[in-house]
């Protein structure tokens, strides 16, 4: 059987990859091990968070499914960092994991051009460094123009709970045992990483009265730009907060000698920013407690996930430590926490399109690229799927720049710098984060989705209306002087706002941190009738107006800088500040311009800055 695109794995990356490929008209086959597990949340029952929320909104703006699914399956919506600036806020939702899977499975089954098949892909069909299909455990062969691997934690997955180990892709699911061996034989750099998950406890055995309630936002915000904000009224279930204590820490420290993380049993490096409880107690021994969130796994509220208590300690130790925690004294454990080691492929093996450099037509997306997180995986899946579809039609690749999207930052970081630990997204990784706000993702990216046929006419009209309303408002406010005439001063006083001396541009008054919609209506009467959600956007634009202008200038400067030619036989070795690795690569590839240099894997933006300075001085 012949397909345009075969996607291996129905996790968060695989779903997005197969959906976009199919929606772009490509005959697509999604092969995954258990169809019931399409869209399974291997770890926490939540989507989004700081920077991760940005990724979901961006992929939604381009036409991905994760945002819509989250709005459908969400059971608590919150904006994190709500008191801080819009650029560092992050949307987060608790999800009903079962509903999430059901929704995704249904969408995959009902998308034209997409077929779903349950089996394990055991081998890639490769000839002369071109992949042309896959072979499965049931010895079926499927041919395809493009193959996208999204195998998550399944390649040679090995689960650890205390001294016990067993091979699995996720708890009680079979691993993928042969693929990574073949990838290594094909010359790709394969490494080993680790991640972990906490225990889940029976809701009936938890004493919630001993814990703090942690609810969702009063006015929940949907993830998807395509969900109607006005009618959005999801269930808002609470989470609960409790803490570890010195007794919990004693139990853990006195069992360090049985912790696979410390005994050498686990070799792969784990996620630095999502450490296990044994790692936290070891590294921060001065801390008397660690915060834990009890999160419902589903709307049924039968099981709670103990966020913050990821562990691979033996089960008797896990039980003792859980019972030492306030509110969990009598907790019945339904599933124990564990760690999993798995094979990944060094992401510097990839081009920006996520196609491997060594094997043509083979793309990698998700945890296979050393990332961690559903959102990171889904974003890569979307990009791999789009690029595979574009390549079939001999069209220009779709590469997002660092100043355009967090997705651009994610992929650029992975393919140019690589990583030796699970990579997760942070707002601090984006140098142009003021431009990359969550709420502007549709303005930045929906046109691309529209061009690829992933965004409807109706949605695009909504985006254009938003763009025009905001642009017109900014244009008006940035040309309108607010003078110190008597009625203006009285207005400021009545709003509790600081006076102005002589005059100020209206945009600078609206851009004050203290301005909300009610004050806006009085300050800018001509725009009082604008829809509420757009008014909020206009206020945010005003707040960032000056900074954004500065950042745009920097980007222009950077673009100009990258055009600079590098003189032939430039002596990189004499430049202080460049690492040996960078010097070796520059000598090897001899790039003609700074732009070409910046595209070499491992040549960082800091190295480009240094090069620019020295070329300027010397030439
Ligand atoms: P997955 O969601 O893992 O999906 C992979 C899919 O590929 C599965 O459906 C599988 O059946 C299929 N598959 C694999 N190999 C084959 C094959 N050969 N043939 C056919 N199908 C195949 N992320 C965080 O952000 N924070 C955490 O704390 C965290 N903890 C985690 C703890 C555990 C124990 C696990 C397992 C994961 C954890 N994650 C965590 C990671 C998160 O689950 C992943 O980052 C995310 O699910 C990756 O998405 P993916 O699509 O790449 O892979």
From TrEMBL:
GO terms of molecular function: flavin adenine dinucleotide binding
InterPro entries linked to this entry: FAD/NAD-bd_sf, GIDA_C_N, MnmG, MnmG-rel, MnmG-rel_CS, MnmG_C, MnmG_C_subdom, MnmG_C_subdom_sf
GO biological process: tRNA methylation; tRNA wobble uridine modification
GO CC, one annotated term: cytosol
One Pfam family per UniProt: GIDA_C_1st
Subcellular location field: Cytoplasm
Annotated tRNA uridine 5-carboxymethylaminomethyl modification enzyme C-terminal subdomain domain residues: 542-613
Chain residues that bind NAD(+): 270-284
Positions that bind FAD: 9-14, 121, 176, 367
Source domain of life: Bacteria
Cofactors that this protein relies on: FAD
SUPFAM superfamilies: FAD/NAD(P)-binding domain
Function according to Swiss-Prot or TrEMBL: NAD-binding protein involved in the addition of a carboxymethylaminomethyl (cmnm) group at the wobble position (U34) of certain tRNAs, forming tRNA-cmnm(5)s(2)U34.
Subunit structure, interactors included: Homodimer. Heterotetramer of two MnmE and two MnmG subunits.
Xref: NCBIfam families: mnmG_gidA (TIGR00136)
Entry similarity comment: Belongs to the MnmG family.
Name the UniProt record assigns to this protein: tRNA uridine 5-carboxymethylaminomethyl modification enzyme MnmG
Organism: Halarcobacter anaerophilus
């Amino acid at each position: 059987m012949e397909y345009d695109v075969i996607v291996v794995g129905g996790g968060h990356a695989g779903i997005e990859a197969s959906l976009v490929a199919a929606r772009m008209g490509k005959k697509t086959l999604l092969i995954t091990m258990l169809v019931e597990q399409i869209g399974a949340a291997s770890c926490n029952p939540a989507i989004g968070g700081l920077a991760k929320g940005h990724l979901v909104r961006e992929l939604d703006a381009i036409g991905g499914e994760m945002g819509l699914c989250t709005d459908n399956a969400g059971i608590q919506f919150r904006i994190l960092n709500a008191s801080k600036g819009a650029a560092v806020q992050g949307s987060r939702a608790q999800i009903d994991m079962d509903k999430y899977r059901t929704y995704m499975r249904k969408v995959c089954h009902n998308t034209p051009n997409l077929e779903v098949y349950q089996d394990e892909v055991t081998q890639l069909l490769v000839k002369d460094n071109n992949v042309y299909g896959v072979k499965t455990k049931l010895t079926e062969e499927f041919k395809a123009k493009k193959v996208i691997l999204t195998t998550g934690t399944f390649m040679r997955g090995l689960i650890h709970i205390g001294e016990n180990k067993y091979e699995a892709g996720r708890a009680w699911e079979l691993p993928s045992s042969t693929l990574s061996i073949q990838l290594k034989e094909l010359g790709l750099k394969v490494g080993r990483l680790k991640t972990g998950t906490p225990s889940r406890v029976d809701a009936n055995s938890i004493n919630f009265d001993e814990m703090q309630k942690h609810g969702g936002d009063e006015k929940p915000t949907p993830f998807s730009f395509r969900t109607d904000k006005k009618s959005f009224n999801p269930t808002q279930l609470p989470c609960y907060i409790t803490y570890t204590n010195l007794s919990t820490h004693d139990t853990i420290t006195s069992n360090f000698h049985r912790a696979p993380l410390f005994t050498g049993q686990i070799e792969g490096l784990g996620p630095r920013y999502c450490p296990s409880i044994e790692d936290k107690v070891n590294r921060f021994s001065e801390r008397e407690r660690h915060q834990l969130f009890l999160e419902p796994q589903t709307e049924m509220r039968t099981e709670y996930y103990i966020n913050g208590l990821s562990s691979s300690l033996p089960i008797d130790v896990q039980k003792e430590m859980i019972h030492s925690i306030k509110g969990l004294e009598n907790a019945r454990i339904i599933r124990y926490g564990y760690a999993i080691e798995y094979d990944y492929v060094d992401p510097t093996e990839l081009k920006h399109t996520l196609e491997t450099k060594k094997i043509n037509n083979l793309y990698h997306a998700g945890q296979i690229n050393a990332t961690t997180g559903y959102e990171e995986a889904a974003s890569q899946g979307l990009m791999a799927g789009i690029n595979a579809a574009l390549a079939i039609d001999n069209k220009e690749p779709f590469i997002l720049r660092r100043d355009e999207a967090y997705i651009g930052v994610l992929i650029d970081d992975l393919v140019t710098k690589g990583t030796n630990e699970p990579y997760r997204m942070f707002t601090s990784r984006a140098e142009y984060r003021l431009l990359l706000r969550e709420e502007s993702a549709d303005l930045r990216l929906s046109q691309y989705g529209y061009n690829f046929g992933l965004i409807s006419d109706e949605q695009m009209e909504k985006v254009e209306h938003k763009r025009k309303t905001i642009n017109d408002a900014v244009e008006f406010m940035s040309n309108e002087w607010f003078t110190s005439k008597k009625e203006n001063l009285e207005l400021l006083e009545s709003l509790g706002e600081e006076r102005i001396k002589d005059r100020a541009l209206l945009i600078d008054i609206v851009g004050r941190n203290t301005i909300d919609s009610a004050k806006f209506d009085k300050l800018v009467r001509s725009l009082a009738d604008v829809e509420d959600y757009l008014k909020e956007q206009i206020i945010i634009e005003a707040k960032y107006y000056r900074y954004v202008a500065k950042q745009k200038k920097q980007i222009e400067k950077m673009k100009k800088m990258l055009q600079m030619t590098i003189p032939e036989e430039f002596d990189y070795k004499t430049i202080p500040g460049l690492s040996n690795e960078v010097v070796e690569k520059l000598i090897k590839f001899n790039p003609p311009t700074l732009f070409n240099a910046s595209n070499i894997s491992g040549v960082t933006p800091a190295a480009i800055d240094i090069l620019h300075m020295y070329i300027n001085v010397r030439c």
